[in-house]
Write a structure and sequence with these properties.
Length: 532
């Protein structure tokens, strides 16, 4: 399958992206409009033929059957024997989605109703802390139990009208110290967010929070709630069932913000707005399962990614939101994409013949422009850039700033594509009065190679509904890329080894055990740490 693509990628290396726009219809032909969004991938080297090849490869990968299998609750996470049904968390009330013969939607809606009642009680003050109404909520979780809700809470700040929300993830005591420092234990609620309820960072931080609270209130446990699928452990931790919000093992951690793990989002902006967030994701689900490939935004986002990474060998992908409130989106996508598609063995146990997921990274624009864009424009590596931009900001009184933001975003994709030729650079230097060798030397530094690919996702405004659409778009992109690669996007065995070794190293670090059986480097590090 991958050999077929090579014919087109070889040819693409000589293509001029600007020249492709001699076709007046290119911008429109190489874009997808759906659900009020525009995804423009025309500033890439994809052509009708290479795109058709990718669409054929998609068909050959068994994509349609796999998509159906996912939405209908089959156990497509084969290495863990689980269904992949995060889409059920945002299904409409009354929908029917079966897993092992049981319709899971009533259970999902029941949990959402319980979340709503709890969030309402916190927001209207009927749930009281030991010093009055809850003013602050701290979500203690890591990975998927942190990145999603933390990203979404920040993204939807204009909609916050509930208690303040905070996130603690790192086992580094500095994190919880700095967050708790400013809070009143009598009016703070702790949400322990952990699918497994065994993650050492989260359980350690939860204990620290309980100790902190016990210094000030008589019943610290009364201000704790749990978001988990391990109901035995939450009970063992003394959190009463009415404050435990559970979910099933068919929700992967990095896909879990649509249910109980999203409780912080619901508390911050209210259950109705949370429903709008879910409805956005649902709209993207409906689009993804019904639209033909060329009109299907997640599919085309994925095929563009495959073209750049597996096709042209560009190993990283920059995600560049021109939207300050999406500043945690790159970190969130790092887990979503790299934990999902960072594999090297296919479903059947064979090695993958091509690279799998790219390195995903990024920062919001315009900040990134003043940091790493230099390398993107003039460095030796080609880095496909994915711009995201809202047509309208929330700050009506700062419209001129939004216009500047928009202009910057468009300018970057234009500069990446068009570049600046040596002739133009020479003219610039001549206009500065240079000539001869010095003109030539200085001009060369001012050349931009151009022909650098980017895509742009435009959306009207970052509302709860729109954020739901955007996140679901990326979730489905990961799915499509995973299917084409033939890998399981829903396990994460690669995180296990380090966790096990950390447990074994802790008594060595603390000096309870010798480091004798460790390698020379680890022994040296331990000696240095102990010696200092
Ligand atoms: O929600 P839990 O079970 O604490 O897990 C947290 C995170 O840890 C991981 O298992 C990786 O270590 C992620 O997949 C997950 O999101």
């Amino acid at each position: 399958m991958w050999n077929k693509l090579k014919t087109y990628t070889d040819a693409a290396l000589d293509l001029s992206i600007p020249a492709l726009f001699e076709d007046a219809g290119r911008a429109q032909d190489f874009s997808v409009c759906a659900a009020d969004m525009l995804f423009d991938y025309s500033k890439t080297s994809l052509t009708d033929d290479s795109r058709a090849c990718l669409v054929n490869m998609l068909g050959e990968s068994g994509f349609e059957a796999r998509r159906k299998a996912m939405f209908s609750g089959e156990h497509i996470n084969e290495t863990e024997g689980r269904a992949v049904l995060h889409t059920a968390l945002r299904a409409a009330a009354g929908a029917e989605i079966f897993e092992d013969g049981e319709n899971v939607v009533p259970g999902v809606r029941e949990t959402l109703d319980r979340m709503r009642a709890f969030a309402d009680a916190l927001r209207d003050g009927s749930f009281q802390g030991q010093g009055g109404a809850i003013t602050d909520v701290v979500n203690i979780g890591i990975g998927g139990s942190d990145l999603g809700p933390a990203m979404a809470c920040l993204a939807l700040k204009p909609y916050h009208d509930g208690p303040r929300t905070h996130f603690v993830s790192n086992v580094d005591g500095a994190h919880i110290h700095d967050i708790l420092q400013g809070l009143n234990p009598e009016t703070t609620l702790i949400l322990v967010a952990s699918k497994t309820f065994t993650t050492i960072e989260t359980m350690t931080n939860a204990q620290t929070a309980r100790d902190w609270m016990a210094l000030s209130v008589s019943d610290p446990g009364a201000q704790f709630a749990a978001l988990s699928s391990n109901l035995t452990s939450t009970a063992g931790w003394g959190i009463p069932a009415e404050r435990v919000f559970g979910f099933e093992d068919w929700v992967g951690g990095r896909y879990s913000l649509w249910g109980p793990i999203g409780l912080t989002i619901m508390i911050a902006m209210g259950a109705d707005k949370f429903e709008e967030f879910l409805s956005g994701a649902r709209a993207m689900d409906d689009h993804f399962r019904t639209a033909a490939p060329l009109d299907n935004m997640p599919v085309m986002l994925a095929l563009t990614g495959i073209w750049h990474n597996q096709g042209l060998g560009y190993g990283t992908r920059a995600v560049l939101p021109y939207d300050q409130r999406l500043s945690r989106l790159p970190a969130y996508l790092q887990q979503l994409e790299m934990e999902s598609n960072g594999k090297s063995v296919r479903m059947d146990g064979s090695d993958t013949p091509v690279h799998t997921g790219p390195v995903v990274w990024g920062e919001p624009g315009t900040n990134g422009q003043h940091a790493f864009y230099q390398l993107i424009h003039q460095g030796t590596r080609v880095i496909p850039c994915e711009f995201l931009l809202a047509v309208e900001g929330h700050e009506a009184d700062l419209k001129h700033q939004h216009e500047l933001l928009v202009a910057n975003c468009l300018a970057q994709s234009e500069a990446l594509m068009l570049g600046r030729s040596l002739d133009v650079a020479r003219e610039l230097m001549a206009a500065k009065g240079l000539d001869g060798d010095e003109l030539e030397r200085q001009a060369r530094h001012r050349v931009f190679p151009g022909n650098r690919p980017s895509t742009t996702l435009l959306y009207p405004k970052l509302t709860p509904h729109m954020l739901g659409q955007i996140i679901a778009l990326y979730e489905h992109r990961v799915f499509v890329e995973g299917v084409m690669l033939g890998i399981n996007s829903y396990d994460q065995w690669g995180v296990e080894l380090g966790k096990q070794l950390a447990v074994a190293l802790q008594p060595i670090v603390s000096g309870e055990m010798p480091a004798d059986d460790k390698d020379g480097s680890t022994r040296q590090l331990v000696d240095f740490i102990r010696g200092n």
